[in-house]
């Protein structure tokens, strides 16, 4: 029985769209004064980073001018200083950003952020040698200084690449895509790896890296779009559901869980959100919660066949034959019974009936499975 | 990439091994030494448009730019009308509003005739009615006169030059039936977007000696119901914003229209031939540039797309064009992202015999400078310091031309933002921008030209769009005509490189085009389109070659002069001149004196020389 379940789960995983979870929404309209952010530099940094990614650097500049005053605790946080510098540069103040960072006094633990931000300003000003001087490490086995700051890897790699030193850039890029797969710069890193592979006539890797670049670029584009839609329609569940799907598609299950929860808060009758919630629970091993969530989804919309199939699979795994049988019968007798993605349902039902001693019914179901193209044995 | 064909290739290889590719590397890092400096020769580049009678004023919708149609402006073409040997000027023209595009009256092209000394007088237009943007020039019917193709929002028209020098309607390439044609004042179906043509290129795709047409298309915009403020409705709508400001919608979020290619007919008409463009992925095309990129003797195409991947369409020799942009390193920015490609230029910047190119982009996206190499292109933007220099600019038309005659190409970009909101606080850019000219050699560093003269082409901040290069005043120096959105055009008179020696080359092919072609036979178009010229300077180890290809489509929505200009610097003679014709034939001229125009015919060789006064 368990072997069958495993096979079926695998087939579902391949057939069904990957589900996902989401990050907490950020309210940029209240960015400078939100009390919840006042004492939380990490949250503030996240909000500023989001604002930069959503093409709103002016919001960061305005917010920073009220927060990064001399003596304020935030003015010693290198993350905030670096983000402010990026925002300044994006609004035409690259020289002001450089001057600001050079006189900033970040804490020892966040000084690296400032150094990397300075290197990025050098990169934007085509001072490629200066980037290398600032970030290249002379220590063996440690190619980059301030390695704890993930941007250090991509900034130094881009400097090498722009200088034509592809060999030095490649290992940095490889490390960056490992450390920062969700970074907005990850598609660039994959692209640069693809170009390096092309130059080396390594066509297989060039193709693979290019696909990674395009796939992550598409993900980033959707991610940006969904965040904008959340900001524009904060009470609407649909953009948050879309965000949850995006997170699930990259296995960021906890973030997906947050977003799908927010969608359901706004519309408790959102069947596809319940189905996604079920999928997330299934992926994290919470079988009972998953079955409950699938049940909610099917209660609202009985036509969600993926949710029904997945509930059947979980019920089989939990040795809840009655639930599994009900769902499988619903599928194989329903409108989508001939769909290739549900072929396994016919086989599973036939085996379930066989195990229940209903040989004739099992043979009948199995015969239909074979007519539909199934090749496994009963 | 295939290699250059033997004769010219060997010559250029020789050049590259000796004097070629001799850009002096910049010491230390780039980006630190490109501060603008006044021209040491005191060049001013005065804008003399008004003084010389070029009183064209562009109309491109309303000042607030509520729709993307109103932001793109118009192009300009330089061509000889009336066969008097000088360059006349034709401008595209838009309308005062999108509403006028529906209700009429439509705009005609605006024509200015040159008196030979660079002074102009208005002449009647061809009588078109529409919203005109892109222009292309070439001899379409082999009668020795230059004809014109013009595209726009809802129009793509072929105009033949008559014996008297008038441009006369010959063929319309957009159907009225399917709503693709926009006829101002004529009722049109609701919910249908006109065809929107941007840049055009006339080139010989299949080597039959007849010019073919590539038409770049932009996007679907319903003139009766354009998207305003947001794209789509409901929770999944997207606001049209830039840096927090509400702006017009597009191109992202609006459907791209696929480009089209037309086969030229010997009599002068065109037939659409989609078989030459298999696997075409529509982008938002803004610029098209023909060039023999791989040196195999046929013409390939660069296509700059707005916000989507650029294309490098490589010709298989029969006219079939397939995209190799990604492999060549042309599709995306150095960071692997699609940019807003606006304009294209080609030239041999580092004098290694391989074409290099420049592509202009949106603000925050540097103008890209790419060098041809054995395998695709290398991105030289940042090593030349162009990243920092050009990042604040939104650039459109572009040229790689030796304006000052020193033997090294300069880079010109026509600049101006699309959003009036660029003048708001904290955008990092501005709506009006100065045009820019950078020298790129002999020091491998982009050094910006500045003029203290307030009347200089480069002194004022405008919203430039199209531009064309050509010697309008007959002094041997290539000048610049630039269109300004919603404003008067400018005529930059080239007064740089006063002491430099120069050479101009005019090509044509009077080889018999009437007899049927033999199988596999390739022919040169009557006007010499596609021919490549190498001018060798110096002797033996010190020799180097300057390379140019006879194409008029370059920049943005514009057509430059067919005359090829070479700068010889202090050298008063060239050592040798070779013309590689598209037919495969070659013309070799022994050395000669500079400071003249050479007229070379594929059939007759050097026909005449005109020494400049």
- Cα-atom Rg of chain A, whole angstroms? 26 Å
Which percent range describes the beta-strand content of chain B?
Answer: 25-35%
Query: What's the total helix number of chain B?
Result: 4
Q: What is the overall shape of chain A?
A: elongated
Widest β-sheet, arrangement of strands of chain B: 1-30-29-27-26
Main beta-sheet strand count, sense and barrel state of chain A: none
Tally the structural domains of chain A.
2
> Span from first to last CA of chain B?
44 Å
Query: What is the second-level CATH architecture of the largest domain in chain A?
Result: Alpha Horseshoe
The CA-CA distance between the termini of chain A, in Å, is: 12 Å
Assigned CATH superfamily of the largest domain in chain A: Tetratricopeptide repeat domain
Question: How many β-strands of chain A, per DSSP?
Answer: 0
DSSP summary: helix tally of chain A: 20
The secondary structure category of chain B is mainly beta
Low-confidence stretches of chain B: 1-21, 27-33
| Biggest interface, chains and residue tallies | A-B, 47 and 42 residues
């Amino acid at each position: 029985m368990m072997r069958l379940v495993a096979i079926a789960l695998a087939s579902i995983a391949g057939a069904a769209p990957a589900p996902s979870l989401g990050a907490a929404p950020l309210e940029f309209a209240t960015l400078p004064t939100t009390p919840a952010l006042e004492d939380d530099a990490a949250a503030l940094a996240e909000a500023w980073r989001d604002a930069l990614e959503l093409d709103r650097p002016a919001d960061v500049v305005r917010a920073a001018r009220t927060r990064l005053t001399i003596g304020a605790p935030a003015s010693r946080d290198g993350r905030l200083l670096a983000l402010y510098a990026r925002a300044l540069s994006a609004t035409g103040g690259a020289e002001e950003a450089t001057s600001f960072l050079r006189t900033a006094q970040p804490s020892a633990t966040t000084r690296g952020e400032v150094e990397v931000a300075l290197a990025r300003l050098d990169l934007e000003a085509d001072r490629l040698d200066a980037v290398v001087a600032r970030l290249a490490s002379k220590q063996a086995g440690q190619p980059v200084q301030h390695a704890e700051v993930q941007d250090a890897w991509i900034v130094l790699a881009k400097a090498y690449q722009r200088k034509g030193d592809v060999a030095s850039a490649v290992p940095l890029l490889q490390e960056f895509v490992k450390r920062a797969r969700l970074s907005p710069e990850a598609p660039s890193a994959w692209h640069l790896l693809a170009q390096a592979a092309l130059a080396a006539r390594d066509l297989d890797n060039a193709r693979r890296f290019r696909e990674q670049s395009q796939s992550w670029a598409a993900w980033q584009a959707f991610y940006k779009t969904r965040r904008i839609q959340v900001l524009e329609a904060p009470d609407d569940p649909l953009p948050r559901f879309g965000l949850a799907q995006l997170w699930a598609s990259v296995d960021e299950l906890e973030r997906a869980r947050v977003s799908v929860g927010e969608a359901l808060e706004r519309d408790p009758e959102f069947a596809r959100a319940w189905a996604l919630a079920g999928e997330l629970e299934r992926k994290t091993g919470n079988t009972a919660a998953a079955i409950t969530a699938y049940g909610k989804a099917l209660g609202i919309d009985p036509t969600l066949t993926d949710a029904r199939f997945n509930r059947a699979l979980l019920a089989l795994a939990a040795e809840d034959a009655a639930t599994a049988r009900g769902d499988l019968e619903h599928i194989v007798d329903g409108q989508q019974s001939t769909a290739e993605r549900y072929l396994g349902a016919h086989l599973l039902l036939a085996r379930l009936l066989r195990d229940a001693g209903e040989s004739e019914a099992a043979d009948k179901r199995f015969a239909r499975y074979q007519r539909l193209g199934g090749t496994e044995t009963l | 990439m295939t290699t250059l064909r033997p004769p010219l290739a060997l010559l250029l290889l020789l050049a590259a091994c000796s004097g070629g590719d001799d850009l002096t590397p910049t010491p230390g890092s780039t980006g630190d030494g490109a501060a603008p400096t006044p021209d040491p020769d005191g060049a001013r580049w005065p804008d003399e448009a008004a003084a010389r009678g070029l009183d064209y004023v562009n109309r491109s919708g309303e000042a607030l730019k509520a729709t993307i149609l109103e932001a793109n402006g118009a192009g300009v073409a330089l061509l000889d009308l009336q066969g008097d040997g000088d360059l006349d000027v034709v401008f595209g023209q838009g309308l005062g509003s999108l509403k006028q595009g529906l209700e009429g009256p439509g705009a005609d092209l605006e024509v200015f005739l040159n008196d030979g000394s660079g002074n102009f007088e208005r002449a009647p237009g061809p009588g078109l009615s529409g919203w005109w943007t892109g222009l292309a020039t070439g001899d379409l019917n082999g009668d020795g006169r230059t004809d014109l193709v013009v595209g726009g929002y809802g129009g793509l028209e072929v105009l033949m030059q008559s014996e008297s020098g008038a441009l006369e309607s010959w063929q319309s390439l957009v159907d009225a039936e399917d709503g693709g044609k926009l006829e101002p004042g004529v009722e049109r179906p609701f919910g249908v977007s006109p065809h929107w043509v941007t840049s055009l290129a006339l080139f010989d795709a299949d080597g039959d000696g007849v010019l073919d047409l590539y038409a770049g298309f932009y996007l679907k915009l319903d003139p009766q119901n354009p998207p305003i403020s947001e794209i789509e409705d409901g929770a999944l709508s997207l606001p049209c914003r830039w840096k927090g400001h509400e702006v017009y919608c597009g191109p992202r979020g609006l459907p791209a229209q696929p480009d089209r290619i037309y086969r030229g007919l010997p009599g002068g008409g065109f037939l659409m031939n989609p078989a030459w463009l298999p696997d075409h992925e529509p982008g938002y095309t803004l610029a098209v540039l023909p060039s023999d990129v791989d040196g195999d003797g046929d013409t390939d195409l660069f296509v700059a797309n707005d916000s989507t991947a650029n294309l490098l369409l490589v010709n298989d020799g029969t006219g079939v064009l397939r995209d190799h942009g990604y492999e060549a390193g042309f599709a995306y920015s150095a960071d692997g992202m699609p940019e807003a490609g606006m304009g294209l230029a080609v030239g041999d910047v580092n004098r290694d015999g391989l074409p290099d190119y420049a592509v202009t982009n949106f603000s925050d996206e540097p103008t890209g400078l790419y060098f041809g190499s054995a395998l695709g292109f290398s991105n030289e933007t940042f090593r030349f310091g162009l990243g920092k220099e050009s990042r604040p600019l939104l650039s459109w038309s572009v040229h790689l031309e030796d304006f000052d005659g020193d033997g090294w190409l300069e880079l010109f970009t026509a600049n101006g933002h699309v959003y009036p909101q660029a003048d708001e606080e904290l955008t990092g850019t501005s709506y009006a921008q100065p045009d820019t000219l950078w020298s790129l050699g002999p020091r491998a560093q982009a050094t910006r030209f500045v003029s203290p003269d307030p009347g200089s082409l480069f002194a004022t901040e405008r919203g430039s769009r199209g531009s064309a290069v050509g010697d309008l005043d007959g002094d041997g120096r290539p000048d610049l005509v630039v269109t300004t959105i919603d404003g008067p055009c400018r005529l930059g008179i080239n007064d740089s490189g006063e002491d430099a020696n120069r050479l101009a080359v005019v090509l044509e092919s009077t080889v018999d085009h009437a007899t049927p072609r033999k199988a596999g036979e390739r022919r040169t178009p009557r006007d010499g389109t596609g021919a490549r010229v190498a001018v060798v300077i110096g002797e033996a180890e010190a020799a180097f070659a300057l390379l140019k290809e006879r194409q008029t489509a370059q920049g943005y929505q514009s057509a430059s002069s067919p005359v090829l200009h070479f700068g010889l610097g202090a050298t008063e003679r060239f050592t040798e001149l070779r013309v590689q014709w598209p037919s495969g034939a070659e013309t070799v001229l022994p050395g000669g004196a500079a400071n003249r125009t050479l007229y070379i015919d594929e059939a007759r060789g050097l026909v005449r020389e005109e020494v400049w006064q």
